[in-house]
């Protein structure tokens, strides 16, 4: 097996003065005058960073509710684990395919804020129905499991269409707002910090609802989750309004002769080894964070036998720690070496956290709070650096940035949807099935950590790549992922870690 190697751009400092952007068909696409280049490359003010950072709050808070409470809610209203998994998979598939089309349309027509606003409206309207009453059941006066599944699957798909449009437009704006590489990481870090704020807000709302409302019937339990969803939508919409008012519509810069840069074809990205490398890192990172979030409520209640309030308290601790780390990361001047170092640190923390979750007995359930701190730090380190690697991949090729974010998000959504479908469909086999989440996370993190470690030794020492061996039994759950990853790394050996050419 050949190792995964991050390219030379992660082995050296980011270029500071590149003023020429390349396209596959036109070597020189965009040339800035000194004044334009300097103004577009200088760091943004804190207010601009703040306005951008809050723009994904509605998506983040509804996504947190989706992954944390949807499976529990659908189970409580009577759906079987397989039907519950079908609802979530339908949403993930709709999200995945929408990211591809949204990315292409945004690259073609622009108007980031229009896409963002339209997607936010769709999210707000449809998400209330995802946790709402089954309308077809009321119309046809039936409680058929099939009707329930179709109804919730439909609204789940609509919700994810809006969610994808908002996500792609918001993420691709980073590269069009500034050329400054450190500022791009700061924007990603701020966005991640408010992701944690959104998640923390959700769990604060959930903790309040669980403590104030004492359910006596199944209907009362359903209403608890509905109130959580409605309040989440309200909070998210407030922050989206701040984003739309405070953020200016980014414009693609013009060349000194007034010609705009040509659109970059999809084939341009598929020919870049870096695209596949960043895709593997990003997808596995998202798989770890999303799977762990989706099954955390089941794990603390069913496996550790913790109190009901732990469904909100444990995730809250995770996101408090993530907020603190994300804020600290905004103050760092970023280089390729630091991206690798912080990503590797997050991977190491998740390896130990996954092992702890796997072997933690219910008699020592309070240690879960300590593990939550480590998970929160690891999530922040990996998410900030993983998203920032996408900005490095795009560089100054702005006309294809939405496709990059859309295609990587497509892979993320499909992989997460399939993973959750498989795990949830088999949950009724064994009450400790939620332990699999630690195996998935631990296995993926071992792979990511080893790849990052080997890439450092290859880039810094220019030595032959060693063969990787994995002996831990938990990696067995990631054999398929390992096989796919190892097949792509055959393209990498001997082609990377060349001297960086200034752009």
Automatic annotation (TrEMBL):
Any coiled-coil regions, as ranges: none
Record-level GO BP terms: carbohydrate transport; transmembrane transport
TM ranges: 114-135, 147-165, 193-213, 225-245, 274-300, 312-329, 341-360, 367-390, 402-423
Top-level lineage group: Eukaryota
One GO CC annotation: plasma membrane
Keywords assigned by UniProt, alphabetized: Membrane, Transmembrane, Transmembrane helix
Pfam family, one: MFS_2
Example GO molecular function: symporter activity
InterPro entries attached to this UniProt entry: MFS_2, MFS_trans_sf
Similarity comment text for this entry: Belongs to the major facilitator superfamily.
The name this protein goes by in its record: Major facilitator superfamily domain-containing protein 12-like isoform X1
Organism: Nelumbo nucifera
Gene transcribed to yield this protein: LOC104597626
